[in-house]
Specification:
Structural class: mainly alpha
Strand content: under 5%
Distance between the termini: 8 Å
Largest sheet: none
Radius of gyration: 15 Å
Helix content: over 70%
Number of strands: 0
């Protein structure tokens, strides 16, 4: 059980870092540095990418906390 939780927690950690780095910041962030900003704008529009990434951040943050709590118990 602990091994499965550890693997799941590691996957969630990597995804959470990636989603946070893709979000647009005042300095255009990592997404603009590698040319991803234009692709996201073309695909989702100006508000769509922000809301999609912020929802993904929220879900991944909750999963991170749940898996961390479960790992502390087991």
């Amino acid at each position: 059980m602990a091994i499965v939780l550890t693997v799941l927690h590691s996957i969630v950690c990597v995804l959470l870092v990636a989603v946070v780095l893709l979000q647009k910041s005042k300095g255009d962030g990592l997404s603009g540095a590698f040319g991803g900003g234009g692709a996201l704008t073309a695909s989702f529009g100006n508000r769509g990418a922000a809301s999609l990434l912020s929802k993904a951040t929220t879900v991944l943050a909750v999963l991170f906390m749940v898996t961390a709590f479960l790992l502390a118990i087991f």
